[in-house]
Amino acid sequence: MESLGIIGIGRFGKMLGKIFADDFIVKGYDANPVSKDIGIKMTDLESVLKERTIILAVPIRDFKDLVMKISPQLKKPCTVIDVCSVKVFPVNVMKDNLPKSIDIIGTHPLFGPDSYHRSEHLKIMMCDVQEKEDSFLFWSSYFVSKGFQVIEMSPEEHDKLAARTQGITHFIGRSLMN
């Protein structure tokens, strides 16, 4: 069985670990390690960075620092996938700072830990940022095989749509509070 790494084992990282656990050995690293048995083999950062696929599931405020820290340690072949809810910023950070020899995929799972088990029609947005090893096809096919609807779009398209929908959501939320 192949393995993959997840950096950031908060609520979202744990959920990702559960999604991948049937098909991969999931190795995880978190700056604040969790001790619960969550189906993720917790290890050190160096071990996670040896994986062929590394998923970055950290808060956006920590994203650039993490990318800068791991960049010199990445070995090819390697695919780095982010799961940030915005796309232009993390994609630009990865393109500007990660080695040109690795694959980069931007994703935004359009669900979270609270909605994951309640829906059968889950969607994930994906954008092929930098590819050398056909990893985008592999991962988009993998998500489809797990029952996800894959939506391909550019980071700019994603953020424009997200701004509209989140703006409406926040407007309604504030209106209900008043």
UniProtKB/TrEMBL annotation:
Enumerate the UniProt keywords alphabetically.
Oxidoreductase
Q: Where is the Prephenate/arogenate dehydrogenase domain?
A: 2-178
**Where, by residue number, does the polypeptide cross the bilayer?**
none
PROSITE patterns for this protein = PDH_ADH
- Pfam families registered for this protein in UniProt: PDH_N
UniProt keyword DNA-binding, yes or no: no
Please name the GO terms that the record assigns under molecular function: NAD+ binding; prephenate dehydrogenase (NAD+) activity; prephenate dehydrogenase (NADP+) activity
Among PANTHER family, the record links this protein to:
PREPHENATE DEHYDROGENASE, PREPHENATE DEHYDROGENASE [NADP(+)]
Query: Could you tell me what this protein is called?
Result: Prephenate/arogenate dehydrogenase domain-containing protein
Organism, scientific name:
marine metagenome
